[in-house]
Amino acid sequence: MRAKGKFISLEGIDGCGKTTLRDQLYDYYKEKYEVLVLREPGGTEVSEKIRDMLLDVRNVGIKPRTEAFLYAASRSQLVEEMILPALQAGKIVIADRFMDSTIAYQGYGRGLDIEFLQELNHLCTGGLKPDLTLLLDIDPEEGQKRRNQDIPDRLEKEGLEFQSRVRAGYLALQRAEPDRIKLLNGGASIIELRGQALQHLAVLL
Ligand SMILES: Nc1ncnc2c1ncn2[C@@H]1O[C@H](COP(=O)(O)OP(=O)(O)OP(=O)(O)O)[C@@H](O)[C@H]1O
Ligand SMILES: [Mg+2]
């Protein structure tokens, strides 16, 4: 199924610097490779509509399991419509969040059963996993400070305790899969982080 492209995902709690790093990596590689950057939830027309539903602060009634299914639906569409064709065409795909977010947020954050979520991930990705995942680890207070100028979305409103559980979840995932998931210090400068990320990517590309 997998072709010659490479699939990289960026993970970490809110405000850790995923989108900033994604844009840095895109700028670095765009001359040399065909690079596709994506965000989750979103990245396709249908997935962006699901994103609006998920992040809308007025949707106070969404249950955790419904939330997990909506993320899965968005991801399923993204994999089939964008990621697999790009990998088959030999592109580098850089995703701002992917399946580990489900385990960290809906599992460790919301308390849903981890095995159920792993199964759900498997169903919506068809078994596709990133070749490399960069986890930007940061203190939740620092992450919140960085985002202070933004209006928080539905998940960002959850607060520091929720973010701490999500962070712990990510660190547990990293310990379980150290070959795929590389830990970066999200508190470092953008330049330093970019350097660390490029070193990991150099091994892969
Ligand atoms: N290494 C860094 N050092 C200092 N500030 C940073 C760093 N990386 C990003 N920032 C700043 O922190 C803020 C949050 O960064 P960014 O949007 O990239 O995080 P994110 O992980 O994508 O957040 P979200 O989960 O909310 O999408 C931005 O204002 C960005 O400019
Ligand atoms: Mg972002």
Structural summary, described in words:
The protein is α/β, with parallel strands linked by helices and 205 residues long. The chain has a single domain (6-204), classed as Rossmann fold (3-Layer(aba) Sandwich), CATH 3.40.50.300. The chain is 54% helix and 13% strand. It is built from eight helices and five strands; from the N terminus they run E-H-E-H-H-E-H-H-E-H-H-E-H. It has helices at residues 18-29, 45-55, 64-88, 99-109, 114-125, 140-146, 160-176, 190-204, and strands spanning 6-11, 35-39, 92-96, 132-137, 181-185. A five-stranded parallel sheet has the order 2-3-1-4-5, sandwiched between helices. The longest helix is centred in the middle third of the chain and has 25 residues, at 64-88. The model has no long low-confidence stretch (mean pLDDT 95). It binds adenosine-5'-triphosphate (ATP) and magnesium ion (MG). The site of adenosine-5'-triphosphate (ATP) has 14 residues, from helix 1 and helix 8.
Mean pLDDT: 95
Give the strand order of the largest sheet, numbering strands 1, 2, ... along the chain: 2-3-1-4-5
CATH class term: Alpha Beta
Q: List the ions, cofactors and other small molecules found in this model.
A: adenosine-5'-triphosphate, magnesium ion
* CA-CA gap between termini: 19 Å
Radius of gyration: 16 Å
> What name does the CATH topology carry?
Rossmann fold
Number of domains: 1
Give the fraction of residues assigned to helices.
Answer: 40-55%
The CATH architecture term is 3-Layer(aba) Sandwich
